[in-house]
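All the exercises in this workshop are built on plain-text protein records. A record pairs a protein's sequence with a compact description of its fold. The structure tokens are whole numbers drawn from a learned vocabulary of backbone shapes. Once this layout is familiar, the rest of the handout is easier to follow. An example says more than a description, so a record of this kind follows.
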Amino acid sequence: MLTLLTMGLAALSCASRRERNPWESKRQHVVELPRPNSETFTFEEAQRRRSEILEMAPSGMLYEWENPFVGFSIHIDAQGVLTVYNSCLRDLPGAPPHGREPHVLSGASDLRGVVESHSRFLQGNPLGVLVTSTHGGASTDLLGVVGELFMPSIQIYYPRTPK
């Protein structure tokens, strides 16, 4: 019973974010990286376009961005430190540390635990993850994060300067 209540609270805390209302400014806007095995892209098509995230615009943490799915945001700072923030689990009683407030990870491989803690609330929808970086563009840290998140059950978002 407690699990059902917890799942309901997670769905409600993220429900207000279900409508697409991406953060936008004149300098940059948030875009989707093609998701493998989605209704739009095969795994191979998404894989060929995976490098589009290297066009990421530099940014700080985008707290005001509204995730259309259950999910969280991750920021890569100038030193390569990974911080999870804006988790939709933050409103749940007993939320994990990365759900309550910004939480520093020891590396990209720690993302597996964050993904698992959110995955039980997906109910057939993808997990939405916004990736931001102080530097933007290609870095070893960004490639590690994308390597951990690039899968059919995760929709990756990132800021990009309008063309």
